[in-house]
Amino acid sequence: MEKNYLIINIGSTSKKYAFYKQNKIVYSAHFEIEKGNYLCTTSFNERKNTDILTKNQFENAIPHVLHLLTLNDLIKERKEIFAIGIRIVAPGTYFLKNRRIDTPYIKKLKEVKTIVPLHINPTLEEIFKLKKMFTKIIGVSDSVFHKDMPNSAKKYAIPETVAAKFEIYKYGYHGISLSSIQTKLRLLLEKFPKKVIMCHLGGGASITAIHEGISVDTSMGFSPLEGIYGGTRVGDIDAAAVIHLGKKLKLNDEKLKSYLNLNCGLIALGKSGDMRILLEGYTKNNKEAKEAVEMFIYKIKKYIGAYTAIMNGVDLLVFSGAIGENSSIIRSLVCTEMQSLGISLDGLKNTRNLPDSFIENTSSQVKIFVAVTNEMEEIAKEINKVL
């Protein structure tokens, strides 16, 4: 019997769905909010179509997706979908393994939902809707890729008894994307590079050092708040400053977490969490947009330098995520004045913006790759390992 899978990725700024028949994608739907409009872009039989939705359709995407699958004769009824795979972004050792989502799993998610509110709250809402219709739902963790990080990167400088009791370690995220890119590069290259730095730049951004195929450090930590700031996340900040901020703004713990997740990052610096809008301002020399972009670049370069140091060099630099894939300006700014690390960009190759392409120049000691990540396919592969 043919097994059909529905793959779901609830991001911090979008919702993605993909329908697989016999391990091959046949339909996809991407829900996002752009300039106040609720949009759904679908892909079927090499045709793309974008529709403007109501807020209710956007918030209740699953019924809309099932309707589209029926409308296009991919299923007659929902029981033809064998299993659901959904991306999980959550801290804790429990989530360092892909698992079937059952009552204990949901309980674990609820316990950590305030730590990663941008992801877990909408993901839980999606799971509750799915549970009414499906029984086989697999949680594919965004942290599994980082499970073998050495203690030097994984641990914080707090007492180990406390760390172990409350499971306070660096877990890292964007692992499904990184795994997808690594699989792709192994097919493209005769020999996978020993020292790789991957820059996943999107609504959330992270930098990861990969040595001989293993994640040895990553910028996101216990939660996605640590590291490079995102569209609305604060990124690296002194813990004392966080405590002081909470007191001065009279914010309790929950409101402070919400503030750091939703009111900081690009939106705080440039008054927009959308890098496309900020880059328009950057090119027009808008002061706030320019500062937001320049600080973003500075943070990325800082992590690249640090990870080059811990690996004693870098062989391959990868750009992925919505910003990394699509913005030649960001890639150019990151690679500017990086010759001391052996990084040198080819301007023409970069501006062509071709997917899955190498953009270094002939003098560069480091290969530079623009990767189109395929998290949905990676999730689909992982389902079979769990069931």
Can you describe this structure?
This protein is an alpha/beta fold. It folds into two domains: 4-145, Nucleotidyltransferase, domain 5 (2-Layer Sandwich); 175-370, 2-Layer Sandwich (Nucleotidyltransferase, domain 5). 41% of the residues lie in helices and 22% in strands. It is built from 16 helices and 14 strands. It has helices spanning 55-59, 61-71, 103-112, 117-131, 151-154, 160-166, 175-188, 239-248, 253-262, 266-270, 275-283, 287-311, 321-326, 328-335, 347-352, 375-386; strands at residues 4-10, 14-21, 24-34, 37-44, 47-53, 83-88, 99-100, 137-141, 195-201, 205-211, 214-218, 316-320, 357-358, 367-370. The strands form two sheets. Strands 5-4-3-2-1-6-8-7 form an eight-stranded mixed beta sheet, sandwiched between helices. Strands 11-10-9-12-14-13 form a six-stranded mixed beta sheet. Helix 12 crosses helix 14 (328-335). The longest helix is centred in the last third of the chain and has 25 residues, at 287-311. The protein starts with a strand and ends with a helix.
